[in-house]
Design goal:
With 483 residues, the protein is an alpha+beta fold. 20% of the residues lie in helices and 39% in strands. The strands form five sheets. Strands 1, 2, 3, 4, 5, 6 and 7 form a seven-stranded mixed beta sheet that branches. A six-stranded mixed beta sheet has the order 12-11-10-15-24-21. A five-stranded mixed beta barrel has the order 9-16-17-19-25.
Length: 483
């Protein structure tokens, strides 16, 4: 947790009285709400190819964003100079853009402490010596190549950031957070008989560097070795994949990362801005059935160490566990301050932004479906002929209609209740609100992804988590080439 005033602000005259004057500038001219978002971020990236380090990058940035909100209008201005003079200029600019609401007086500022500490890391990953990180990538290269002689290329990368933020609001709150984040990625290319296939895996979160060097509970192999072997396994597996079937058929989604389909096809449609404007397929449907009674979907920003978790969101609101769909009934949306106020609904701690140069909006944190009662074996055994999708690559979704297209990076035929041959080129085509009504079995094996998710919306990217138990969708269109 940061001190009352973060270290990077101590060189400026940014006492509470100075900040209160800045807030008064932003609130002038009939403004409903205003806030200041200070940020100092150090980022790094290291990549290894062909056994050698190809790129090392490090960057330090800092700045402040000033937001003024009047009814549905938002004025936003930012500066990488956080001196009192530039703060005042940004506040006036934001106010002029948004002016037109009610006259609101700012409250006297008081420091607040987040109600939870979800990532108490003693040494930030970015402070670990560079040779240790390079050594890790070199070990990954050796392990992946040793899996099979058909692995011809290995690419490994490590990225981390250390972000200190401080949010000051016109409601009188001043609250900060310190956010470590890291991610390790491995990509392998396998070649045989003129065929070339790729496999990728990785993980991370808001944790210490030792996370990669340790094994998950109950296992003996460290995570970095698991990542290397898994990427190599996928590449080798895809060499033997047959063409994917095409048509409408039962589809079983595996646990963990396939939750990306839930995130894209359903989660975005439950963000408050789309629903307030009536542009989501879920608009106006609170209290109605939107999914099978077996489906309960939550967004939880309070899971310790997870990539999508936050102590407070980027508006200073404590994060929480929000139930979105309960036993198939739509019960909530993901809210930021502006949309919650306009919709007269409670805050959920989902106001997020990419950086100080971006205005916040409602975004997901860790979004997943709760476990059911069926065993994965029973789910697979109930399908005579269908598709089992274990992992996904890219995808697209139309928020208004809910229509989506996803490409499976690892999938198999299901034949007489058994996992059959691996397939390539499979795409899943459907409609988010409709597909959840076709879920007929939900597994007891809910898992979160390994910590690699990044979500894009309106040009902003933020880290997120996804999750899913094994589920059976009775009917879904599969795009492929085999008949």
């Amino acid at each position: 947790m940061p001190e009352t005033q973060p270290f990077f602000l101590t060189r400026y005259d940014l006492s509470f009285p100075t900040l209160e004057k800045t807030m008064d500038l932003a609130l002038g001219g009939k403004i409903d709400y205003a806030d200041l978002y200070f940020e100092h971020q150090t980022s790094e990236s290291i990549s290894l190819e062909e056994g050698i380090v190809k790129r090392v990058w490090k960057n330090v940035s800092q700045g402040v964003g000033v937001r003024a909100v009047a009814q549905e209008k938002t004025g936003y201005a930012y500066s990488d100079d956080i001196s009192p003079e530039q703060l005042s200029a940004a506040a006036r600019c934001a106010r002029h853009i948004a002016s037109g609401g009610e006259n609101v007086a700012s409250r006297r500022l008081a420091a607040a402490t987040p109600r939870h500490d979800l990532y108490p890391v003693s040494e930030a990953p970015i402070d670990v010596p560079l040779p240790d990180k390079v050594n890790l990538l070199q070990q990954i290269d050796q392990i992946a190549r040793g899996v099979d002689s058909r692995i011809t290329q290995v690419m490994a990368s490590f990225a981390s950031e250390y972000k200190v933020v401080w949010v000051v609001t016109s409601e009188g709150v001043a609250v900060g957070d310190i956010l470590p984040l890291m991610r390790l990625n491995v990509t392998c290319i396998a070649e045989a008989g003129g065929e070339r296939q790729i496999g990728s895996f990785g993980g991370g979160g808001r944790d210490a560097f030792s996370f990669f060097l340790s094994a998950p509970q109950g296992e003996s192999v460290p995570r970095f070795e698991q990542y290397a072997r898994e990427a190599a396994r996928q590449a080798i597996l895809n060499l033997s994949a047959v063409e994917a079937p095409a048509g409408t058929m039962p589809v079983v989604l595996g646990p963990g990362w396939p939750g990306i389909l839930l995130h894209e096809a359903v989660g975005h449609g439950l963000e408050a801005d789309f629903n307030r404007k009536g542009t989501s397929a879920f608009s106006g449907r609170l209290g109605t059935r939107v999914a099978s009674p077996l489906c309960t979907v939550v967004d939880d920003g309070t899971i310790p160490g997870r990539r999508g978790s936050l102590n407070v969101d980027d508006e200073g609101t404590p994060t929480q566990r929000t139930v979105l769909i309960e036993n198939g009934i739509l019960v909530g949306y993901l809210q930021d301050r502006q949309n919650a106020r306009l919709m007269k609904m409670p805050l959920t701690g989902n106001g997020r932004r990419e950086s100080y140069a971006h205005s916040p909006m409602p975004r997901m944190t860790n979004t997943f479906m709760l476990a059911g009662e069926s065993s994965p074996a029973d789910i697979l055994g109930s399908v005579k002929n269908g598709l089992y999708a274990v992992s996904f690559g890219g995808g697209q979704v139309d928020i208004t209609s809910g229509k989506f297209v996803f490409t499976a990076s690892e999938a198999y035929r299901i034949e007489n209740g058994k996992i059959g041959a691996p397939v390539k080129g499979a795409t899943l085509i459907g409609n988010g609100p409709d597909v959840l009504t076709r879920v007929s079995m939900v597994g007891n094996d809910m898992a979160l992804d390994s910590g690699v998710g990044t979500c894009g919306k309106d040009g902003q990217s933020v880290p997120v988590g996804v999750g899913l138990p094994t589920i059976k969708i009775d009917s879904l269109t599969v795009g492929g080439t085999a008949q």
